């Protein structure tokens, strides 16, 4: 309201710098003294010292006199915060709550609503016994994840990860209250200080395998050089061309430049590079080096050469000859899918037990094709087939070298008509006949079945 009619007054003369809002269109009354407009306050604001002003220097009366200075309203309050006055809360979980040597886990921080101003500085790791990687936010603005790495050489069952909520706000500007903490989790990262101990040494053809006694696993990455081993066959030094470590099986496999024959005397020695723990040596996952050992005898399990089966004089076409007299034609045994050898050697077709020799050439090994049906003997039309391999005088699934055990018959029969409740026999029954090895009062058998 002006004290007299004015001219040259419009919205550009209105000052909203301290207004916390916007002004709609100015409408003049007929008397030329009064103007009105709608004021809309800014959202999400809480301020008690707001004013709207008019710059009078650009406004004149009917006589052409300009005003002087600025006219301002008294203070007014703007509180346009949401009706939500409750700050955010959070839950903190670890994917793995029992952390050991070499392990990490994912930490998930979930807020009950979208939040702002949350970062790593709000995470409290005072009682965590570990470090947190980069926090990654989900698109919903509620969930953050990061990788947690426990501190080495710690044993503590009362660890927690917390978030200081006082620095975290929701979209309405409400800050959280106090601290949110995870449930207790355990950290046991005490190093394994016991080195692996040599247990056995076996050789077959050009593969020499050392097995170790170890509470955890071997290190399959930092392996020793080939020159760390000395292998002698009949007291002649044989070069080692490759070294492979199976961490889970706790074995060290050496590939020899020359294959070993059955009956040859074999020794192996190992030299740990230094007295301390080395970057490349036989060692466990914690880095404990296995000790050097002098020349030790190696169990030579190289199979004896197999003599070719004599021709079947009763059959012109010799493809169905049963060369090893186990009741299964060689043509059937040779169709058996091969499996890798103990040291990872490439499969050989017809070698169902992975000992490097075709089953059709071993009297103690027999492979047969079965119908995948409980009524195997009846051979229902359309039934799929599979192979099984039976090993007599078995040691870890392989026949003892030079064994005189023999399998003389192997066939599939129907499952019994009535089975105990819950019992299934998808391959029916397997019937076999065998002759024990000389001097054996009992016999061990292994059966290979497709998984």
How many strands, what sense, and barrel or not for the largest sheet?
5 strands, antiparallel
- How far do the termini sit from each other? 94 Å
What structural category do the secondary elements indicate? Answer: mainly beta
Which stretches are low in confidence, meaning pLDDT under 50 for 5 or more residues running? 312-318
Summed over residues and divided by their number, the pLDDT gives a mean of 89
Radius of gyration: 42 Å
Beta-strand content: 35-45%
Fraction in helix:
under 10%
Tally of DSSP β-strands: 40
Which term fits the overall shape?
A: elongated
The number of distinct helices, counting runs of at least 4 residues, comes to 1
Structure description:
The chain has 451 residues and is mainly beta. Strands 12, 14, 17, 18 and 19 form a five-stranded antiparallel beta sheet that branches. The chain has a five-stranded mixed beta sheet with strand order 29-30-26-25-33, with no helix packed on it. It has a four-stranded antiparallel beta sheet with strand order 28-27-31-32, with no helix packed on it. It starts with 5 loop residues before the first strand and ends with a strand.
Q: Which features characterize this protein?
A:
mainly beta, 5-stranded antiparallel sheet, 40 strands, 451 residues
């Amino acid at each position: 309201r002006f004290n007299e009619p004015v001219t040259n007054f419009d919205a550009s003369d209105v000052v909203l710098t301290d207004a916390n809002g916007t002004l709609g269109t100015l409408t003049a009354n007929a008397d030329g003294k009064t103007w009105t407009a709608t004021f809309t306050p800014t959202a999400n604001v809480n301020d008690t010292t707001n004013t709207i002003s008019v710059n009078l220097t650009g406004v004149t009366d009917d006589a052409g006199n300009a005003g002087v200075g600025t006219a301002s309203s008294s203070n007014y309050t703007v509180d346009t915060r949401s009706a939500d006055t409750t700050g955010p809360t959070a839950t903190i979980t670890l994917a793995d709550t029992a952390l050991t040597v070499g392990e990490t886990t994912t930490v998930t921080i979930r807020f009950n609503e979208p939040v702002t101003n949350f970062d790593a500085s709000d995470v409290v790791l005072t009682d965590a016994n570990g470090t947190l990687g980069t926090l990654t936010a989900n698109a919903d603005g509620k969930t953050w994840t990061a990788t947690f790495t426990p501190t080495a050489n710690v044993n503590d069952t009362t660890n927690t990860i917390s978030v200081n909520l006082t620095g975290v706000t929701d979209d309405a500007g409400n800050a959280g209250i106090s601290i949110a903490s995870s449930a207790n989790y355990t950290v046991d990262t005490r190093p394994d200080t016991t080195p692996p101990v040599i247990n056995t040494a076996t050789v077959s053809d050009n593969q020499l395998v050392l097995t170790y006694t170890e509470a955890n696993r071997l290190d399959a990455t930092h392996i020793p050089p080939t020159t760390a081993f000395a292998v002698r066959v009949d007291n002649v030094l044989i070069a080692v061309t490759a070294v492979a470590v199976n961490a889970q099986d706790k074995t060290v496999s050496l590939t020899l430049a020359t294959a070993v024959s059955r009956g040859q005397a074999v020794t192996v020695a190992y030299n740990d590079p230094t007295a301390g723990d080395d970057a490349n040596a036989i060692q466990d996952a914690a880095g404990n080096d296995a000790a050097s050992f002098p020349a030790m005898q190696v169990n030579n399990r190289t199979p004896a050469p197999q003599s070719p089966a004599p021709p079947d004089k009763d059959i012109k076409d010799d493809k169905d000859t049963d060369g090893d007299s186990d009741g299964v034609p060689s043509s059937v045994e040779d169709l058996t899918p091969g499996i890798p050898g103990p040291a990872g050697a490439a499969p050989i077709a017809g070698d169902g037990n992975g000992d490097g020799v075709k089953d059709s050439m071993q009297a103690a090994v027999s492979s047969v094709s079965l119908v995948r049906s409980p009524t195997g003997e009846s051979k229902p039309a359309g039934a799929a087939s599979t192979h099984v391999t039976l090993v007599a005088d078995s040691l870890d699934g392989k026949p003892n070298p030079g064994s005189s055990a023999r399998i003389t018959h192997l066939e599939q029969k129907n499952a019994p008509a009535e089975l105990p409740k819950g019992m299934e026999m998808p391959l029916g029954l397997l019937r076999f006949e065998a002759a024990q090895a000389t001097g054996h009062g009992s016999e061990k058998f292994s059966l290979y079945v497709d998984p």
